[in-house]
Design a protein that fits this description.
CATH architecture: 3-Layer(aba) Sandwich
Shape: globular
CATH superfamily: LigB-like
Strand order of the largest sheet: 6-3-7-2-8-1-10-9-11
Oligomer: single chain
Number of strands: 11
Largest sheet: 9 strands, mixed
Order of helices and strands: EHHHEEEEHEHEHEHHHHEEE
Structural class: alpha/beta
Number of helices: 10
Radius of gyration: 17 Å
Length: about 300
């Protein structure tokens, strides 16, 4: 059977993709950020997942305010990098896993989660930047990806608890897929940032640290946190953090944190990153003792 072996949380700041694409990763303002993902690049090269279910939000690339699904799952064979106004990123095409995607859709819809089924969907920096941070600049992504887009742009957005429960439902679906697959679930977006208004430039290190602590140790506290609190503490765009709850819900009640990285600022955003494993599989991490558990800048 397929199995979920790990969860990854990561920011998806578009400027990070631009720095990578333009060869600026060694410049002083960018080097600490890319160094913070070096452990994770080694770890994932050893873990070699077959499929990543990547939870992200679209930034008016595949969807507009004319059509805003709460949850949308990519069921296509492949997904092209989106043109976000300055041409698509020069990164590989994302290869999907339609068999598992349709299986997840069938399972979670019968559990009364309404997913929009996408047979064609371009994917923007919300999905491609985390892939670049974890895999670098390969000629082809070494993993198949199921995009799962969540609406955190247009109100009403789903609650943190609903995102968590969707992760639980996805875990049940993966567990009944008959192919032997190593599956990871990633939650992307955040951390604290606000792009407009009187609080533009907001970064809340204390809240971000508390969020990362609770993600591992007390996710129920994050599940019940209302949108207003996420926005007050993390900024209007900081509400993207509810997507990390989908990843967390897919891992089961107890997890072990293998790695954490936090850095401010990247552009005008806090960057957060965490690697979690379900407790029952944590002892099998082949790189667990290779480097320190966490890093921060």
């Amino acid at each position: 059977m397929a199995r979920i072996t790990a969860g990854v949380g990561s920011s998806h700041v578009p400027a990070i993709g631009a720095a990578l694409d333009r060869g600026r990763t060694h410049q002083p303002e960018w080097r600490p950020i890319f160094a913070g993902y070096e452990w994770s690049q080694r770890w994932i090269a050893a873990e070699r997942p077959d499929v990543i279910i990547l939870v992200y939000n679209d930034h008016a690339s595949a969807f507009s305010l004319d059509f805003v699904p709460t949850f949308a799952i990519g069921c296509a064979d492949s997904f092209a990098p989106a043109d976000e106004g300055w041409g698509p990123r020069q990164v590989p095409e994302v290869i999907g896993h339609p068999e598992l995607a349709w299986h997840i859709a069938q399972s979670v819809i019968l559990e009364e989660f309404d997913l929009t089924l996408m047979d064609r969907m371009d994917v923007d920096h919300g999905l491609t930047v985390p892939l670049s941070l974890m895999f670098g600049q390969p000629t082809a992504w070494p993993v198949r990806v199921i995009p799962l887009a969540v609406n955190v742009i247009q109100y009403p957005a789903p609650t943190a608890n609903r995102c968590y429960r969707l992760g639980e439902a996805i875990a049940r679906a993966v567990a009944t897929f008959p192919e032997d697959l190593n599956v990871q679930v990633w939650g992307t977006g955040g951390m604290s940032h606000q792009l407009a208004g009187s609080r533009a430039g907001l970064i809340n290190r204390e809240f971000d640290t508390l969020f990362l602590d609770r993600l591992s140790e007390a996710p129920d506290a994050l599940r019940v946190m209302p949108h207003e609190e996420y926005i007050r503490e993390a900024g209007s765009e900081g509400m993207e953090l509810i997507m990390w709850l989908t990843m967390r819900g897919a891992l089961g009640p107890r997890v072990r944190e293998l790695y954490r990285f936090y850095h401010v600022p990247a552009s005008n955003t806090a960057v957060g990153h965490v690697v979690l494993v379900p407790e029952e599989t944590g002892e099998r991490s082949v790189t667990d003792d290779a480097v320190p558990r966490s890093a921060a800048a």
